[in-house]
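User: Modeling request: complex.
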Amino acid sequence: MKNSCLFIIMIILSFFFMGCEKTMPFAPEENELLDGPVEGLSTAEQIQFLKGDEAFGDVFTIEEGLGPVFVANQCASCHAGDGKGSPFVKFTRFGQPDTLGNQFLSFGGPQLQHKAIPGYQPEQLPFGATSTDLIAPAVSGLGFLDAVSDADIISMSDENDANGDGISGRPHWNNIPGYVQLRPNSISQNGKYISRFGKKGGAYDLLHQTSGAYNQDMGITSLFEPIDPFSGLEVDPEVSTQTVHDVVFYLKTLKAPLRRDQDDSDVIVGEQLFSQADCAKCHTPTLQTSNSPIEALSNKVFHPYTDLLLHDMGSGLDDGYTEGFALTSEWKTPALWGLGLSKDAQGGTYFLLHDGRAMSIEEAILLHGGEAEQSKTMYTQLSETEKQQLIKFLESL
Amino acid sequence: MKIFTSISPKQILIACLFYVTAGNIKAQIMDSVITRVPVDTTKSLLNMDAVYNRPFLTTDKLPVALGGYLEANSFYSSEDGVSEGLSFQARRLTVFMSASISKRIKFLSEIEFEDGTKEIGIEFAAMDVTFHPVFNFRGGIIMNPIGAFNQNHDGPKWEFVERPDVAVNMLPATWSNAGFGLFGKTHKKNWVFGYEVYLTNGFDNSIVDNEDNKTFLPAAKENKERFEESNNGKALVTGKLAIKNRKIGEIGLSYMGGVYNKFEEDGLKLDEKRRLDVFAIDFNTTIKKTATYIVGEYVVATIDVPETYTQQFGNKQQGFFVDVVQTIFKRKILDWESASFNFAARLDYVDWNVGTFKETGTNIGEDLWAISPAISFRPTSQTVFRLNYRYQWQKDILNNPPSLTAAWLFGFSTYF
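Assistant: Request completed. Predicted assembly structure:
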């Protein structure tokens, strides 16, 4: 008895001293994760990436400025694992039914802060305001999209459908806040600039997007967005300028999602079907960055499956709300990269389209309308096998 | 006068430590006059007696008895394949002092230094007055008797380096507060009954407003003002009933509850009164045939969180732990008369947010499972060397694939 016990103890101790590493959980494959930095960052850039990563996960408490009305209390709440948001952190924007501007800014617009810290009441949707529900997009690869030149975006547009294919994407020419720094290659049209982030493409760059999110999502004021959404008054910054810059840098330098199962024969066929159904005319597979102050992002070819343009998606997806100069039926083409990993950030279920109403890729396809009506029809005419191959391709992104 | 006012609490603690050290030196010189206060090993003890059931040293002429324990360990862990490497931890140095002030009146204190001097706290400092065995008064800084671990947390008593998750990451062990109360005990044949009931200061808004981003009772430990005044003027009620059969084991039922939030200030209403209610059941037994010791605790908590706040902060929590300890052999090794070697295993579970999402009706995550096999060597009953392996699955609030963490921990804990 004693000998056998000693034998077991010796085995355990040997296991401990010789095999420590082997008893540890394995790291997931890099292409199974949305987070992580882009390759080629300098040491200084990696340090700033880590600071931004930490700030992205920081939880705001009431003492630190959360609210009093808010949607979420940290960036990572809406972008778990840097992926898409879930209905749990769905948010509502309201008050702009046309391109003439938001009529409800003095009633708490444009975003409904539907949660409140104890002792306060959350905002209510004002009577008469049209609205749309939104879930947050994935944030991986944003630096690549940020570094695409305006000229490249314009080259993909076909505002008057000159080629007669029924698809007429256009850039979102928008007014921009004073604090953003224009890209060196920015192109202006009547004092407006191409904005490219957000579901309606309403944000010019990641600083614009991030400052707005701190303010409208968490009720956190900054040097850039100093108006408290609850009181409507300018207050002291509740997040430091450096922290905002760190988070912007983090978002810029998150790696692009990596493909999986590229060599699978079904995936290869699915990719061909994707092109044949003209999906690729809006979900443009390949773009290129221009010069970027971050060397790792300069002049890189990448595969986001978006053209960064506004497209009319039909009445089914028209919620009667818009931003900037987009029409209520227009949505910026969402990037499809990382689509297959979405459900790992959404609690195991897909919540797709702008408000998460589609709970499968097929449902999302079938809810396309407007300029995508023809592609949807082509999808419905595919055989079941072909549909599965197309979906398998999309899941490989 | 100036001399006294310039002495900081830290200096007092250091002086106490010096006192203990000096006591040890004295022990070497005057071994004949120092005596070890025997640990009560009778089967009339309940978990509630843990605070006094510790080894103490005293001398003939010294009015106080001294004791304490030290815990240190190394650990190597990895989360999702990423390791921070090997670390060493000086977890705790705890000093006990007890005194019989007079007949029927005694005093005991427990002062703890955690992670070096990162955290220094008085975990227990109370005066007990015995009017009758079933009617005792206790006042001072007391350990709220919720579950079993909070009052019985000394490192040398356990085979695991880590404390149970339900005790330290759901309940706030070690959870002490200023307050008063009553306790008592009686026995009849093989049965022992005990009770405790205390009114103390308690929790605050931090349990639903913290950087842990979940309803987190241990967040209230950061509020040191709870030893000075109540956060809201409402007492926290903690009570426990325990029953033990000397041949079977002990079971305890405990409750802790009260208004946790600051609901008014200067007569102005800030919020509704919001309650916290915690129920716990604990047990311990030894299977005589195999000498297998089993101990565990199940806790469920309900917290009134405003409907208009975020579901990130849950209104119901639950968790448990179970330890099974099997002595493999016990015999003389070197000069240790009854050294023992043990196998043990622990199962941990905590769900910080029980319920479903309003938006989807799906289950809210934010839970943790962990299993920890262990081996331990006790040269004496007061000292334990322990080697633990821990494997943990932790899900985020959305129920995304769990984060996997594994750790090897090797350390010791010893009374002195």
